Amino acid sequence: MAAFFRSFLDSPVGPKTTHFWGPVANWGFVAAGLVDMEKPPEMISGNMTGAMCVCSALLMRFAWMVRPRNYLLLACHASNETVQLYQLSRWAKGQGYFLSEKKEETKSQ
């Protein structure tokens, strides 16, 4: 057990590096997105949420391509991408981008 912990501690993505602490800090974005699910869609910024989606997508690719692969960063940004896409869909519904056919038929009559 001690050998495993020592190897993790001294690894290129271990807690002595920014490859570890950067993703740990980025989990705050995921937590904030989860908390924001309770807020009404009118409070969501479409521009900022879209920017977070693009940023997380780019950083997922970076985490996959960098050597050594940073799986913690990949998991963090995949989670953030999921949360932000959900928030973006809530914003779009709130703005009326996803009107159902029933509502459109009712308006035309």
From TrEMBL:
What Gene Ontology cellular-component terms does the record carry? mitochondrial inner membrane
Q: Where in the cell is it found?
A: Mitochondrion inner membrane
**One biological-process term from Gene Ontology?**
pyruvate import into mitochondria
Topological category with respect to the lipid bilayer = Multi-pass membrane protein
* Record key words, sorted: Membrane, Mitochondrion, Mitochondrion inner membrane, Transmembrane, Transmembrane helix, Transport
Q: Does the keyword Transport apply?
A: yes
Which superkingdom?
Eukaryota
Q: Which family does it belong to?
A: Belongs to the mitochondrial pyruvate carrier (MPC) (TC 2.A.105) family.
Quote the PANTHER family the UniProt record gives.
UPF0041 BRAIN PROTEIN 44-RELATED
Task: Tell me the function of this protein.
Answer: Mediates the uptake of pyruvate into mitochondria.
Indicate what this protein is called per its UniProt record. Answer: Mitochondrial pyruvate carrier
Species assigned in the record: Salix udensis
